[in-house]
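Deliverable D5.2: sample structural annotation.
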Amino acid sequence: MMSFEALRCGVQFTPPSIILIYQHKDTKRVRKRVMPVRNFSKYSDYSMAAERLKNHPRHRDYLRGVTQGQLEKLHVILRDHMEGLGLEHSLASFHLDPEEDLNKLDDDGLARKKGQMDGLFQRNRRRESDPDFVYDVEKEFGKSGLEKCSWDEESDDGF
């Protein structure tokens, strides 16, 4: 079995392909591999297409060092291009904006954002095995940020 180290990944729009720059571990030669994305349209499921490419017999040895998430992102960029959206739009969709209204997203966009939030949560999560883990953290929050509302002071029922 040959061993390869993935160095860089990218997309090619015409024809739709995933580009992999890799290094052969034995010979240390850097090479480029073009993997065509077949039967993929703007209506295709990007996660299934990425999984199909990663498990393809011709490409699986080369794609071992590439995560499923990275392949999914490349397929999203390809699909957005097929829909007529620009690269800037695709790249912006991968960033979390705390001010963004998630109620306005379609199901696919919402699932993508939820996946990103879950990944961010898992990275920042504190586990019991962490050296700075504290079991019961209590914090006091100042009341300076509270706003007075008229309905807080006056109640129709006298409660």
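Annotation notes: The mean pLDDT is 85. The helical segments are 46-54, 68-82, 87-92, 107-124, 150-153.
The annotation will be released with the project's public dataset once the embargo ends.
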